[in-house]
Amino acid sequence: MYTAFLIGNIASGKSTAAKYLESHGAYRLDLDQMAKDLYLPGSPVLKALSAHFGDDILDHDGSLIRPALARKAFSTPEGVSQLNAIVHPILLKQLALSLQKAALRTDKAAPTLTVVEVSVPQDFTSAFDLADDIVAITAPLDVRRSRAVARGMSADDFDRRALRQVSEDTLVSYANTVYDNSVADDGLFAWLDRWMSDRGLLPAVPDGFEADRL
């Protein structure tokens, strides 16, 4: 099975690309969602976080109080480092297990491609060896801001989020393959078709498929 990590900053089109590949038979994993799924009451992640940051980050039912964790974890560089040291190994283990399960499938619907959306690539470079290709979807900052505002995000909210992300140049430096998604047309989909075709991964296009562009 072929595994690709998709990386891209906010409103670059990364999620659009991932969903398009999924519509063509790929198995899609969202690393952000996988991380959120780790924060369940009684989970190893919450036990480790409460042991380090204090039981007051948990509600009476054992669920995470996210603002409380944020105040403690993000108040110092050391807190951020400790948070990452606790969460990342567990998340990466879960990702590796999910990829292994997908690779071992032998049923008729078993995917030939797994695509992983990675929103914070600088924190997960240690996992890149799990992929056959690191694909960066890029677009200039002003283009991405316009797209985000057009879909309902405030410009200030976009700017705050964008400041926490790596530059486009840094993003490209992580990648083996790069697509410049500056123009909002069907070029992204045509390029993804070629990308799949070059790797022998292109099945039939589903009837009536349409993807929202970011």
The largest beta-sheet arranges its strands as 2-3-1-4-5
Q: Main beta sheet, described?
A: 5 strands, parallel
- The overall average pLDDT, rounded, is 90
Helical proportion, percent range: 40-55%
| Low-confidence regions | 204-214
CATH architecture of the largest domain: 3-Layer(aba) Sandwich
**Beta-strand percent range:** 5-15%
Map the helices and strands.
Elements: E1 2-7, H1 14-23, E2 27-30, H2 31-37, H3 44-53, H4 66-73, H5 77-104, E3 113-118, E4 133-138, H6 141-150, H7 155-163, H8 168-174, E5 177-180, H9 187-198
Parallel strand pairs: 1-3, 1-4, 2-3, 4-5
Helix pairs in contact: 3-5, 6-7
Brief summary of the model shown:
This protein has 214 residues and is an alpha/beta fold. Helices cover 47% and strands 12% of the residues.
